[in-house]
Specification:
The strands form 2 sheets. An 8-stranded mixed beta sheet has the order 7-8-10-9-11-12-13-14, with helices on both faces. Helix 10 runs antiparallel to helix 11. By secondary structure, it is of the alpha/beta class. The chain is built from 15 helices and 14 strands.
């Protein structure tokens, strides 16, 4: 543990003991304390230790009792330390108990905290104070027609808030984001479409529709325009990377940032498990097709969710059962085979995507399941070559990291997006 991480840990130790005065000893005299606005809470930015004691700690102590603070993970980023954890307590006036997850971001200089950003699980936290101001996050399923194809999408969060566009991978759909969306929708506008032939979107006949990544990017672009999504941060996983990078390179002005989760833009990290796909896309014939058809089996879908996961028993079977339902539809195999053959168009575009990263330097968060057998952890770190200030997190999980790390990834995203908005 380095000295910066220890400084942060000392703060939580003193808060746990109820000694707020001693806890503030880690603050520099000119500390900036940031509380973003949430439902039922106006937020604020406070400068200087005395202002923080008056406007933050004073009201906090008078409002809450029986407070416990439990940091679960401290992420060492050098001068920046991100803390993910939980706290609980009771509202003094109403007697209402609360439990909430938090994500805190600290900046440490010369052994003192110079900046602190509080990012809580706000729906739970502020329902305790002002239950009339908050409620359950409503995730709405909608369908619109785009160039003759019905596109289903999930949407939640305030329309005027910063937008997050979630692009799914194979063989899933927007269903893979069902846990992440409510975690972020109190503060952000979150949308997740199903590609044609996936999930609840239409599956036009191959004779009438070209199942290619170029076509997917075209459809998703038209869809964003149809729903009025003019600027957004892209979340890209697996197939989401070739679709999303096509959007970003075509319309860099629309992209406010990137969140990349097991989606390659470099040849590093293309795991050996992808060998059957590479053989098929370069030499499609009966023999290579037979090998890739194994990717349509329920055992393989289940493998994608469980391989590399610390506690497989905690991954609900609804993950692969839902995906498999759509894979088993008549004609779905031909759709997927067409996309497998077209995958060869992605690798030659890597230099173009890398040039986009170097040129535009979008704020970039990489949250990567390091045990993924398909897109291995070697594919995460090369992003630093083109975006040197990218934030890289290697998570102890597999290909579908959201299946067991949705809360942690939501905390990373919330901290990342809020920091970028405040700069």
């Amino acid at each position: 543990m380095n000295s910066n991480t220890r400084t942060v840990e000392c703060f939580y130790e003193q808060v746990r003991r109820g000694d707020f005065a001693l806890a503030t000893e880690v603050f520099s005299d000119d500390l900036t304390w940031v509380e973003p606005p949430f439902p039922g809470h106006p937020g604020g930015v406070y400068h200087g230790k005395s202002k923080i004691l008056e406007h933050v700690f004073g009201p906090f102590i008078s409002t809450w009792s029986d407070l416990t603070v439990s940091p679960d993970r401290l992420i060492d980023g050098g001068a920046e330390v991100v803390v993910l954890g939980r706290y609980a307590g009771k509202h003094r006036d109403t007697g209402r108990p609360f439990e909430a997850r938090f994500s805190h971001a600290w900046t440490i200089r010369n052994g003192k905290a110079t900046r602190f950003e509080m990012l809580a699980d706000t729906i739970q936290f502020f329902r305790t104070v002002a239950p009339q101001a908050t409620g359950e996050v409503a995730v709405v399923g909608k369908t619109i027609e785009v160039e003759g194809v019905e596109i289903f999408y999930r949407e939640a969060g305030p329309l005027g808030a910063p937008s997050l566009l979630l692009l799914h991978g194979f063989p899933s759909s927007s269903h893979m984001y069902r846990d992440l969306i409510p975690e972020l929708a109190d503060q952000f506008h979150v949308v997740a479409p199903d590609y044609p032939g996936f999930g609840l979107s239409g599956m036009p006949d191959l004779a009438e529709f070209s199942y290619t990544f170029d076509q997917f990017a075209k459809i998703i672009t038209r869809w964003t325009e149809a729903i009025g999504l003019s600027r957004y941060t892209l979340y890209m996983q697996d197939y989401g990377a070739p679709v999303g990078f096509r959007l970003a390179t075509a319309h860099p002005d629309r992209v406010e940032g990137l969140v990349i989760q097991n989606g390659n833009a470099y040849t590093e990290g293309l795991g050996e498990s992808l060998a059957p796909l590479i053989d098929y896309m370069t030499t499609p014939n009966q023999e290579t097709e037979a090998s890739v058809r194994a990717l349509f089996a329920v055992a393989t879908t289940r493998f994608q969710y469980l391989q590399g996961v610390r506690r497989p028993s905690e991954i609900g079977p609804e993950n692969w059962i839902y995906d498999q339902y759509f894979l088993d539809r008549p004609g779905a195999d031909q759709v997927q085979l067409a996309l497998f053959r077209d995958y060869k168009t992605n690798l030659p575009l890597y230099p173009t995507w890398q040039r986009y990263l170097r040129t535009h330097r979008p704020p970039t968060l990489v949250a990567w399941g390091k045990n993924d057998p398909f897109f291995t952890s070697a594919g995460a770190k090369p992003f630093l070559r083109d975006v040197p200030d990218a934030e890289i997190h290697l998570l102890d999980t597999g290909h579908f990291a959201l299946a067991d790390h949705a809360v942690e990834i939501a905390g990373l995203i919330r901290s990342f997006l809020t920091r970028n908005r405040s700069r």
